[in-house]
Amino acid sequence: MNLVDRLTADMKTAMKNGDKLALSVIRMMRSEIKYAEISKGSPLTEEDVLEVLSRECKKRRDSIEEYTKGNRQDIAAQLEKEVEIISTYLPKQLTKEEIQSIIDEAIRETQVSSVKEMGKLMAYIMPKVKGKADGKLVNQLVKEKLSN
Q1: Angle subtended at Cα 29 by Cα 27 and Cα 33, rounded to the nearest 5 degrees
Q2: Cross-referenced InterPro entries, in alphabetical order (predicted)?
Q3: Coil, helix or strand for 56?
């Protein structure tokens, strides 16, 4: 079952169970997918749908940070619940150790040794971790590795 079908089935289940939060989040995700489909002008591939869901998850994570800084725990808690729901549709995220091993492999392959060449290294790493790791975390780990 592809993601769009799974979202539709889960939306029906949420309606039957009266789960308003899940229903709301799933409707938002379906809307974003439809918008992306219209923008692209053709049906989205499974990878495109994953990209939309990842982007929406990232937006909420960034907002959580801002609302926490602004001392709005109520909104941050709501967004965390939304992230949990969206995350169920995303591939399992890589652990910090798995990301570090990918970084080590990339350094061996690209022969990058300084922070100045970080762009070359990131260009090699990001396609491998796309959708499976937060870009901000990868960037931070690469900087740490190259600084040592």
Answers
A1: 115
A2: Asn/Gln_amidotransferase (IPR018027), Asn/Gln_tRNA_amidoTrase-B-like (IPR003789), GatB_Yqey_C_2 (IPR023168), YqeY/Aim41 (IPR019004), YqeY/Aim41_N (IPR042184)
A3: helix
State the helix-helix crossing angle for 135-147 and 96-110, rounded to 10 degrees. 60
**Predicted confidence (pLDDT) per residue in 22-59, tens digit:** 999 999 999 999 999 999 999 999 889 988 998 999 89
The C-alpha atoms of residue 87 and residue 105 are separated, in whole angstroms, by 27
Whether 148 and 113 have beta carbons less than 8 Å apart is answered as no
pLDDT tens column, 56-112: 998 999 999 999 999 999 999 999 999 999 999 988 888 888 888 888 888 888 887
Distance separating the N- and C-terminal Cα atoms of the chain: 45
Contact 100, 141 (CB under 8 A): yes
